Amino acid sequence: MLILGIDPGLNITGYGIIDKNQNTLKFIDAGFIKTSSKDNTEIRLFKIYRDLLKIVSKYKLDAIVLEKLYAHYKHPLTACLLGHARGVICLVCAQKNIELFEYGATRTKKAILGKGSASKLQIQHMVLNILGMKDEAVVSLDITDALSLAIAHSYILKREEIFKFS
Questions:
Q1: What CATH number is given to the structural domain containing 96?
Q2: pTM for the whole structure
Q3: What confidence category does residue 48 fall into, taking pLDDT thresholds of 50, 70 and 90?
């Protein structure tokens, strides 16, 4: 099962793909889509759309996972811009008929580390450890956030399978 985790952003959208095969997780691909703040919003969204479409077309994905939208009352514009990027991702899911899953940050952290208050650096370290990747310096937080979503989804699916059969 190929799972694509996406950490959406208008400036940088991180992505990570893992292969869940029974009890093992294998790193497949990761990177980020970067847009220029000098470009108009519609150009930036089109770049995210176009680049994500290339990634999704390259792999036969079984699921795409996004973090649920969280908006801080002091920064409503940030939530709006993030919503635009998320909308483009949802559009790609619909076009390619790929099931979309969403988890809150706390649920993702609990699935990865067992506690919902983990820092981004703790998550990064655990993600790299789970996937057998060595050098934290070459992997951005946008990428490990995306990979953490994919890993969390695989763990959540595994728990649901266990409860279904008990």
A1: 3.30.420.10
A2: 0.92
A3: very high
142 included as an active-site residue: yes
In the annotation, is 39 catalytic? no
CA dist., res. 114 & res. 135, Å (int): 23
Structure tokens at 91: 């559009």
Which residues contact residue 15 at a Cβ distance below 8 angstroms, ignoring those fewer than 6 apart?
Answer: 4, 5, 6, 7, 29, 30, 31, 32, 33, 52, 55, 143, 146
- C-alpha pair distances (Å), 48 with each of 36, 86, 147: 11, 10, 18
Report how many domains make up the chain: 1
- Cα separation, 148 vs 51, whole angstroms: 21
Task: Note down the domain range covering 32.
Answer: 2-165
Q: Which of 51, 136, 142, 145 is catalytic?
A: 142
Closest by Cα among 52, 38, 63 to 87: 52
- Distance, in Å, from the CA atom of 90 to the CA atom of 66, rounded to the nearest integer, reads 9
Considering 67, 135, 136, 161, which one is annotated as catalytic? 67
Q: Per the residue annotation, which of 7, 29, 136, 160 is the catalytic one?
A: 7
